[in-house]
Every structure is written in C-alpha cells, then in structure tokens.
Amino acid sequence: MTMNNQANAPVNTDNYLLRSVHTNNFPKILDQLGISLVVSTYQAGKLIVLRADNGVINTHFRTFNKPMGLAATHEKIALGTAYQIWDFRNVPAVAGKIEPPGKHDACYLPRNIHITGDIDIHEMAWAKDELWFINTRFSCLCTLGHPNSFVPRWRPPFITGYDLTDRCHLNGFCLKNDQPKYATALGETDTAAGWRKNKANGGILIDIETNEILMRGLSMPHSPRWYQEQLWLLESGNGSLAKVDLNQRKLETIAKLPGFTRGIDFWGNLAFIGLSQVRETAVFTGMPITQLQERICGVWVVNILTGETVAFLRFEAGVQEIFSVTVLPNIRFPEIIEWNENLLASSYVLPDEALAETVKPTSEIAMAETYLAKGNQLYQEGKLLEAIAAYQECLKLQPDLTRAKYNLGVALGDNQQYEAAINFLQQVINTEPDNADAHNSIAYAYSQKGDLEGAIKHYEKAINLNGSFAKAHFNLGMTLLKNGDLKRGFAECEWRWQTSEFTPFQCPHPRWKGEDISNKTLLVHTEQGAGDAIQFIRYIPLAAKRCQSIILVCPPELIPLFKNIPEIDKLMPPGQLQLSEFDVYVPLMSLPYIFGTTLDTIPANIPYLQSTNNNHINITDTEYKVGIVWGGSPTHKNDSNRSCKITDFLPIFQVPGVKFYSLQKGERSKELTQIFYLNIAGKLS
Fold first, then answer.
1. Quick one: average pLDDT of 552-573?
2. d(Cα 660, Cα 647) in Å, to the nearest integer?
3. Number of Cα atoms under 13 Å in the Cβ half of residue 314
4. 260-267 and 270-276: which strand pairing?
5. What whole-number percentage of the chain has pLDDT above 70?
6. What confidence tens digit (pLDDT) does each residue in 184-194 have?
7. Which structural domain, as residue segments, surrounds residue 354?
C-alpha cells in the first residue's frame, strides 16, 4: 500500500491541525462501493465525513459538543451529543444549492433536537422508524418519547434500579431482525462505576431478548454487530475484531489492529473500524492494548474473510479517539449542516400532497433567491466581496428581503465596512425589532468602530431577547473588558464555553469555582494563544493560596518560561495524565473571573516571570531596550487585524536613545532581511 499525505490534499485549511494521511487505495474503495463514511470523535468534538474526492480522502469536519453515538441511513442520521440527540434528514434538493454545482449527492439538515440531559449516550440504531440508544449513565437501553428526556426500555438483569452512576458501563448493542438483540457492557456490576475494578477482563455479552449473559471475561467489548448471519464485536482492550461462536460461547479473532478498536460498520466483505490512541490512562491502565509501543487513531479497512488490512486513514494530529464509524450507503459526497442559519432559513421540507399545490415563484423572485443562495455560499467560502455583490443583486430584485439585508450587513461588517453594515442591520432591526441576531451583529460593527457604548447597548438587547445567546454574552464580555468593566466582562466571557469556537476540557472531575480546596490538587490548563497564557499566568500565585498544589498543563514551548514559577508543583504538556493526580480543574483564563478582578485588583507583582536564558543583553544603561514582535499566528482567523509588517515599525526605529530587539518567532522572523538594506541595521538586533 502507498500513502497519501492528507496535509497536501485539497482540504479546508481551517482544519489543518486535524490533518491525516491515508493509503492511496482508500478513496478508490469508497468510489468503487459508492459510499462515504461518517465518524464521530467526542475527544475532538467533531463529526467527520470521509468522502472520495479526485483520488484523495476529503475529511469534512462539523463541530458538535461531545459527539458519540451514530445511526445513519440514506435518508437520515441520528447523532448523540453531550446532552442532546440531533435528528438530520437528507434533503437532496438542498444538495443542488451547495457549491460547486453537481458535486454533492446528499445534504443532511437538522430537523429536530431532543434534550436528553447528560446521560453519556453511546451506540444508537434505528429499529424500523424508532430510534434506540444506549444510556450509559442510567445503565439502560432507551427510546425517545416527548416530553420525557428518554424512555427506558431494557436494562441488564443484574441492574436493580436507575441512577446516574454508570454501574456497568453498558456501551453497545445491535439489532437482529430489526429488533434489539445483543448488548455489551464492561462489567457485571450493580454499584457506582463498579466495572472499573475489573475493567481489563470483566466485559460481558448479553442477549437482550432472553436476559442471558452469553459470554464473560471479555476485554472491554464494544460495537456488537449482526452481519451476514453472524455476530461480530470489537474486543477493544485487545485491539481486535472478532466473530462470536454462539454455540461454543467463544470468540474467534479475525484481526488485531494497532489501536483501541471502537466503532464498526460493514459493506460487502469489508469492515470499516475505528481505532483510538487511548488517552485516559486512569480508565484504560491494565489493558493489553496499552502495551503496544505505538497506538494509532484512524479508520482501518479489514477484509472480514481473511483478516487482512486492505486500507487505512490515520489521523496525524488533533484527533486521538474515535467512537463511531458508520457507512452512508449509495452516497458518495454528502454534506451535513450543523447550524447554517442561511441555508436552514431558505430550505423547506413539505409533504408530497402540499408540495403538489405549492405555487412556483415568479422568475424575479426565483432569481433573487438564486443570488441569495450564491451569496451565502460565497460567504461560507470567505469570498466577502463576491458575496456582497451577490446580496446586492438580490436586493435589486427584492428590495425588502430582510434575510438578504441581514446577510449583506454581516458580510459588510466582516469586510470592515462598518458604516454600511450598520445601515443595513438597522434596517433589519426596524423591520424586526426582536431579531437577536441582528442586534448581536450590529453591536459587533459598533464595537469595531470604537463605539463601545453603542455595542454594549445592542449586545444587551440581544441577550434580553435570547437569554441563552452564548455568542452575544461572550461578545458583550469582550466589549466590557475593552470598556474597563473587568468584573462584569470576565463574568460574561465565561459563556465562551457554550459557543462553537471553544471546546471545553473533557474531564469527570469538578471545575473549580474559587472555593477553599486547601487539601486538594488543582489542575490549571491554558487555552487560546501563548500570549494569553503569558498574561494570565500572573494569577497562579493567587490560586496557590487556596489549594494544596497546582499542576499546570500548557504548550511545550511555554514550559521553559513557566518552570521557575514557585507556586507550580508540576508542569507538563497536553497528553496523558492520571485522573488520580488531581481533584479539580480550571481554565487559566477563568481565574480573573473567579477572583473578581477589577482595574484596581489586577495582579501587578512585576516581574512575575523570570527568564532562564543565560544569553544576557549587554548594552549601556543609557539606552532603552525595547523588544518587538510584529506577527502572530498566520492561521489565526483575525490575523489581518492582529499582525503587521516589520516595515511598519520604520518610523519608530528613528527614535534616538533606543535599541530595538526582535523577539519574533516562526516564519515571519525572516522579514528581518527586508530592513538590513535600509541603513538602520544598527538600531535593531
């Protein structure tokens, strides 16, 4: 097999950090079978579509909060997340609206979201038109039923009641003859998390219909499947695919793979299997799979007749665990829309009898809708000028189309045409005064203009209209910080974890809220950029006064800078960490909120960082020493407003009595060569 480096494939550069490589035959297999795959990863917070695209695998990412269980057919997808079940339906007519024309052969739109509460949803399956799913925290198999969160339909015979303690880690099930038939659990236990004591070989296989325990002594079994009149399962602790001999009550191992096997689907004689690296050492210690020198995350394709690996896709970064793998039959290049308001607002699904009586729009209205859809697509692609032009053409045909005015206002704001953006968004608000999105968008334009009071007024209006509008709360927080209201600003910024831009730290331990934990260990983790970490690390001494010890998790490049902070007891990069090593956790940038920071109480023990670099700067005391950095991360979405060129500093370099030093890192440090031809090299080192 030969390899194709997905980092060089034509994929969205926003997902570069989720790069992958694959064997060259993987896209050929999907093409020949006429299928695509959907993969969930709760660790990365992504739903991933694997689809063949001109000889490579196109990995298409959608963001969700802890996506796990999946059930998919040609017509529908159900997805279990942190506390919801999403119901998507395939609307082929919408696929034709998506650029480029003719590329997509399916488009799954959200039709319903059911709130289940945090029940740790595991595997799911459609039995006819009824969705069944594993409720792991309550140790039962459930269906949906409005207005209930869930309806328990079956539980293992040894489970004596329902609670939230995950008594046996019920995790997988499958259908036979369109009815739930077999289930797997990690223990035959009826106490809170009792399965953990014998997790290495306490797994069981249960007959749902008879309540008989068919097999014991399995190593973390997952993903039972009835296929080709045969029961299959993944013995994840061994990293294997196995067939179950129901007469002898034995497993026949078909293939051993280089990772924690979890999530499987079949097509023909091929099995598509999810592999995980296994990060939670506190849960998975003692597993045979942890003895492998290298554990891989990806999707492996195995011939079920021979056990041979025929193809694979391996994630190189970002994705470390996979939960579910599902085939989309007879769909080669699907789109899944998680929450595209423009597309959802302009797409309608009607019963056939109503559709037959639908009046077709006039050519002028139809053309306006075409321009609107084109503008939406161009906007999604980041082509702001083209999108603005399309919206303007739409409004020439339908001057009162509020959706087009709103979208045009947003695009103008993103293009830094703030006055024009405010004009169109105010027109939307005049027509729809209760439009929370319009208030949030016009507030952004005001804030970018520097009118912070105007921005705050509209953010507050958006929140009054929609109290759970997380993005408006976060935007309000950032604006309040700019305006000097730190205490309220940091409080509003805590809403960031409920926006799509931030992925919360997944941890079973409680989050610290500032209470006295003098007998406990606090884990503090950095977030966002290195600059933010350097600024907010000043809060560590305050946190240390309320806890027994501190573990700091930060990017490797910051460890040399932070290692001399005496209040930090352990410093480590992201990766494996025993859950037993700490008791509570907190994001570093939540510490100002916890301590109720105001302008007068910002920790100002300066310097609060000490360099360990022995290369001292030797210049006369008569000169000021000024370090400069002109560029941040070039992949940051706001880089155009955060970074400049070194030549922008040329007037400043003329200031007498000052010696300038470049502190720039990365590729942009090469720009230094640009100024060595300008007769000021002596001013900059």
1. 91
2. 13
3. 16
4. antiparallel
5. 90
6. 999 999 999 99
7. 1-115+323-358
Q: Mean pLDDT over residues 481-491, rounded?
A: 95
Q: Is 646 helix (H, G, I), strand (E, B) or coil?
A: helix
Do 602 and 628 fall within a single domain? no
Same domain flag for 449 and 404: yes
Grouping H, G, I as helix, E, B as strand and the rest as coil, residue 354 is helix
Task: Reply yes or no on whether the pLDDT at 609 is more than 70.
Answer: yes
Per-residue pLDDT of 290-349, as tens digits, reads 555 567 899 999 999 999 999 999 998 778 899 999 999 999 999 998 876 666 776 777
- Residue the block writes with tokens 């240390």: 544
Q: How far lies 179's CA from each of 207, 474, 642, in Å?
A: 12, 46, 57
Q: Write the CATH number for 448.
A: 1.25.40.10
Q: pLDDT of 71-92, one tens digit each?
A: 999 999 999 999 999 999 999 8
288 neighbors 53 (Cβ within 8 angstroms)? no
Rounded Cα gap, residues 431 and 429, in angstroms: 5
Tokens coding 316: 């190189």
CB 542 within 8 A of CB 591: yes
Q: Hey, CA dihedral for 252, 256, 259, 265, is it positive or negative?
A: negative
CA–CA separation, 412 vs 389, rounded Å? 10
CB 260 within 8 A of CB 275: yes
Asked if 137 and 166 count as a contact pair (C-beta separation under 8 A), the reply is: yes
- The predicted pLDDT at position 621 comes to 65
Helix 486-493 to helix 470-482 angle (10° resolution) is 150
For residue 284, tell me if it sits in a domain: no
**Count of alpha carbons within 13 angstroms of residue 2, beta-carbon side:** 6
Tokens of 12: 């969205």
* Beta bridge pairs of residue 62: 47
| Number of domains into which the chain is organized | 4
Classify 409 as helix, strand or coil. helix
Question: Same structural domain for residues 590 and 665?
Answer: no
Residue 443 within a domain: yes
Each residue of 543-566: b (16+ CB within 10 Å) or e?
Answer: bbebbebbbbbbeeebeebbeebe
Q: Which pLDDT belongs to residue 1?
A: 44
User: With a threshold of 0.85, does the pTM exceed it?
Assistant: no
What is the amino acid identity at position 430?
N
Amino acid identity of 153? R
Q: Are residues 645 and 574 in the same domain?
A: no
DSSP β-ladder status, 584-587 and 517-525: parallel
First to last CA, the chain: 50
